[in-house]
Write a structure and sequence with these properties.
The complex is a heterodimer of chains A (222) and B (246). Chain A is mostly helical and 222 residues long. Helices cover 83% and strands 0% of the residues of chain A. Chain A is built from eight helices and no strands. Chain B is built from nine helices and ten strands. Chain B is globular. The two termini of chain B are 31 Å apart. Classes of the chains: A mainly alpha (222), B alpha/beta (246).
Amino acid sequence: MINIVQTYWSMLLRSMGQTLLLCLLSLIFAMIIGFIFALMNVGRNRFFNLVGTVYVDAVRGVPLIVLAYFIYFGLPSGIKAMGIQNFRLSALSAGTIALSMNCGAYMAEIIRAGIESVDRGQMEASRSLGLNYNKSMRLVVLPQAIRTMIPSIINQFIITLKDTSILSVIGFPELTNMGKTISGNTFKSLQTWAIVGIMYMIVIVTLSKVAKRIERRANRGR
Amino acid sequence: MEDKKVMVHVQNLKKNFGKLEVLKDISIDIQEGEVVVLLGPSGSGKSTFLRCLNQLEEATSGTIIIDGHNVTDKHTDINKVRENIGMVFQHFNLFAHKTVLQNITMAPIELKKMTKDEAREEGMRLLKRVGMHEKADIYPSQISGGQKQRVAIARSLAMKPDIMLFDEPTSALDPEMVGEVLAVMKELAAEGMTMVVVTHEIGFAREVADRVVFMDDGYIVEQGTPQDLILHPREARTIDFLNKVL
């Protein structure tokens, strides 16, 4: 085990970096996607409601691994069939898109539930003072919704971090993929996967501890 | 009595929730400075009527004109009209994430009615008026129901409304806190504010109202001065209701 760490530590760390990069990019886009579709879903516009529902249902109804294959292999071949030759999608781009879409759908549901957990009277009071819908949402509803959403969002962050491992199937050099390479080279499966597992665990446990602190701080002024 | 301007003009107002007809045919005029109390059993449509006035509920049909603005017209900027219609809710609806003072200053600042300093000054003045200036910097969760409602009234007043709507403002309060809220409302009435009040406080109606309106089943059944309506009701439904609550 120590041998493996000694030989491969820099590659392991680099692939962990790739994992974190993929996760971070996906989370940023997922937050944006989540907010957009959640706001579509809570509004009163029937068309937007439909778009929001279809997106969430479609993405949640497809396994992430299928979504990843679809975007990495399916999309470029489809575009090629349409006559555009030079279209390429890197594993990082495809992975980020797949993961953002997936995480974004769950995020949309978390944000929608958060918004709906805020008493309707808050919106009504704000509207009755003459503030329009958008201002009321931004100044009154969302600040309160975000507090209740924090635990679920953090939970989703952790799930997404773990889901990056699924993207090893499209050849993105993240940690799990590196694990495959190392165990293939050394024939030491047990040790390799133990090391990889521990690395995930360290990062995730650290993140959840930090998250707990943020959660406590957000709840303080209540 | 000299001719006063009509502040609220409602004609043939109807409101359905799906198939349920809540308001069937309401017409009423309210003068500037008038205090109108709406009485009626629960489900009679009085809260819905009040919420139609500032279009928190969209009218199904009919016309509502507030201070010259037709709020039932789709082209009216309802947000602009709402700035002049204060509303006080049964459950206070103070903004939980803002301090007492911020609750009051948010709308005037956001709607560019006042600068931050002006809003704070005005906010403190209003809080003093409702006896809450010492609680300016704490959060709504730390004050009592009666105090919350007084802050809510101050919040509405900060927009300098021409009319105030009260939707059962004391119904969610412990009995010993009702008085402090009614006292603030009485003061407002004495200063000449136009008020429409949905309440079960018959005593308040008798003492403060210029006119009492009895509603039942989506209609205005009977209206008149408190003397007439409360002491000498004519309609059977009014008599029946008053017997139950008095």
